[in-house]
Amino acid sequence: MAGTAVLGRVTWRSAAVIGLHDETATARTIALAVRDWPGHIAGQHVDVRLTAADGYSAVRSYSIASAPSSDGRIELTVERLPSGEVSPYLTQQVMIGDDLELRGPIGGWFVWRRDQTEPIQLVAGGSGIVPLMAMVRSRASAGSIAPFRLLYSVREPETVFYRDELRALSNQGDSVVITYAYTRVTPKDWPRPAGRIDAELIASGTWPSNLRPSSYVCGPTSFVEHTTGLLIAAGHDREKIRTERFGATGERK
Amino acid sequence: MAIISRGFAGRRSAADAKLPPGQYLTTDFPVLSAGPTPHISLDRWEFTIDDGNNVLKRWDWKSFRELPTETITVDLHCVTRWSKLDTAWEGVSLDVLLADIKTDLPYGMFRSYGDYTTNLPLKDVMNKQAWIAFKYNGADLEPEHGGPTRLLVPHLYLWKSAKWVKGLSLMPQDKPGFWESLGYHIYGDPWLEQRYSGE
After folding, report:
1. What is the spatial distance between Cα A69 and Cα A106, in angstroms, rounded to a whole number?
2. Chain B residues within 8 angstroms (CB to CB) of chain A
3. Which of A113, A207, A245, B31 has its CA 20 to 30 A from that of B81?
4. Cβ contact A14–B3 (<8 Å)
5. pLDDT digits over A107-158, tens only?
């Protein structure tokens, strides 16, 4: 029984690039049609392999941004790292019609399943929004009414991913409540000065701990250390907090 | 047969020759953990070895630090594909910790503060292959890197080097730990590229 799932996960599959969309000046969403895609759970990632003409190859992991679906299509959002090996190619060179190779889905811990009904607190730092967006989209496509809140920290307004879609989602009934935190530059007339998330913002922008939410925190290591510390100080159980971190060189996301 | 990525050249370096397949070199020290970093005070810290029924050995911080230590310089290979070369650690060898224990049990489950676990064949942690490390680069090990103590098993992928380690349970049969239950390889040899279960 586990055998099929295991083989499915480690097999390299061809994936045709069927759409490209720039989220910000440095991040691009790549839509892929994956041959024999087995499906995924929100929060999982894939390995992407690029191969040069002489056979040299490089592999990096990227979180899936799209909701689970049965049509074999997934979306990845890739942030370009200036000194990266794979992300510059994926954000600047790849074209619609190209074939990439990928395998997955990978990861069974940092996931939100559609049968979860408890309140969910998402906390994103920068491109850490990607797997959390898959959860938000999964909730919407499943018609789930699990109460979701998202606290999304960005450097400045221009670095927000999925801006229009998040605005639309937060304006619906049964909505996802979204709080933005701007660390360097705020929008005009923003009530709070630029700065990193603090205890006050945790108190106003996240579920109170007595609701016992499950929390998913994703972002750079320092962001995850800082915000999980604030959540624990606010009374959240550490057992209810799942994290995914990326270091300065980490291309996972 | 791999698909050639149009226009992809890649970035290679001479150091890649020293790396296991599919790894790239980094000089900083990324962190990967499944949950919040636990902060353990040394007066609460302990390390125990049990056989599933009885505690066979127990150390508090004072008795642990009275044990002979070694300094080791090793390469680290993370399953997320970064490798870091020549990292310097100080720790107590598992040979020292297991010296007085007579056992036929061939496997071990390492247990951590924060409920992380990872499984290893006992032969992989003996004969100068594994340490309970408490210093990195000459300084006390930072909590985010596993302090006060982490297991160091450098010949396997780094998830086996459990952070915040607090004990070892000896087992008659191999059993998956935390990541091993979530799709990662039961053994994790980077030179055989054993990343995921089924490889």
Report:
1. 16
2. 2-12, 22, 24, 26, 28-38, 80-82, 114-115, 144, 179, 181-183, 196-199
3. A113
4. yes
5. 889 999 999 999 999 999 999 999 999 999 999 999 999 999 999 999 999 9
Helix (H, G, I), strand (E, B) or coil at A131: helix
Q: Does A117 touch chain B (CB under 8 A)?
A: no
Protein fold of A2-106 = Elongation Factor Tu (Ef-tu); domain 3 (2.40.30)
Q: How far apart are CA B175 and CA B126, in angstroms?
A: 19
Query: Is B98:B47 a contact under the CB 8 Å cutoff?
Result: no
Interface A–B counts its CB contacts (< 8 A) at 117
The verdict on a CB contact (< 8 Å) between A108 and B183 is: yes
Q: What is the CATH number of domain B53-192?
A: 3.90.420.10
* Residues A120-246, CATH architecture: 3-Layer(aba) Sandwich (3.40)
Rounded to two decimals, what is the model's pTM?
A: 0.91
Q: Domain segments of chain B: what residues?
A: 53-192
Q: Which of residues 180-199 of A touch B (CB under 8 A)?
A: none
For B155-186, the pLDDT digits (tens) are 999 999 999 999 999 999 999 999 999 989 99
d(CA A141, CA A49): 29
Q: Which chain B residues have a beta carbon less than 8 Å from that of A239?
A: 35, 115
Residue B59 CB-half CA count within 13 A: 20
ipTM: 0.86
Check if the beta carbon of residue A111 is closer than 8 Å to that of residue A41.
yes
